[in-house]
Amino acid sequence: MNTTAVHKSSNKKEGAVQEVKQYVTFMIANESYGIPVLKVQEIIGMTEIVHVPNSPDFIKGVINLRGSVVSVVDMRKRFHMDEREYDMFTVIIIVEIKDMPVGMIVDSVSDVVDISETDIQNTPHLTAKIDTDFIAGIGQINDKLVIILDIERIFSAEEIKRIEKEEAV
Description:
The chain is mostly beta strands. Helices cover about 10% and strands about 50% of the residues. It has two helices and twelve strands. The strands form two sheets. Strands 1, 2, 3, 9, 10, 11 and 12 form a seven-stranded mixed sheet that branches. Strands 4-7-8-6-5 form a five-stranded mixed sheet.
């Protein structure tokens, strides 16, 4: 799958090129999020999750993924949102963070979309009270906004160590 394409821009400069990247989009609490398709290993339906005692509240536990133990994070809990019951649309997106597979539980997967760099706005300071370090930008697809996540910054170094510890159990 070609994940990066170069298209001629219809902007003011004739012949200018812009980079278009593909993102897997998904929903959490009626908000649309996106992560680079290259970070996604696979998407699986909900499966049995084994709870690990004394783990952070956003880590739901671990799953067996073809013989490998993978920590699973409930993204609603990670983003301090209300929990909801899992349903037939709830999925686990297996991503690679710091060379380690991690499962992200999301409400549903939407699509794989192309977003050009010119359609992504940086979010340096949405507000001083909101931690936006893990947001790479806000993408626009037609009239819909997509929060682009920086998958490598969703968890702190300390949280990554805790996730690694869960997988070693």
